[in-house]
Amino acid sequence: MGLLADTGDATPARVAPRAVRVAYGTCLAVLVGFAGLSIAYFVAGFNTGSLGFDFRGAFLPAAHAVLGGESPYPSVEGPALASQTAYVYPPLLAYVLIPFTILPETAASILAVLIVAALLVATLAPLGVRDLRCYAATALWAPTTNVLHLASSSI
Known about the structure:
By secondary structure, the protein is an all-alpha fold. It is 61% helix and 0% strand.
């Protein structure tokens, strides 16, 4: 006789349908709540001018500098390094962002946020992720929300 008793029942235990509905409803309510908070975060960022903060503060000025034939990098004694808003990324990124310089700053920032969001999807899709819940969980993850809000190149 083994350590586990054989009950003779080969069918798995069934979960009551009501319990499944309650669990599903709870998960859905939590996701909707997080989505609402994320949307409020983006609306607040748009209203306060902080949406696309990295893009506005570092990336777009670097693209303007490169377009004008100047270095995108600040001087070592400059205040941008002390305030941690300086462009410290590879120069290719500044060249890639030159098309954004023809747009107004707000429109360019919103477009940058949308492109970062599209890149998130473009990262998951080739990996074979097909479950929409994975996309939702990734979009609502705090680091992703932060990168989207800042329009950072860190994603």
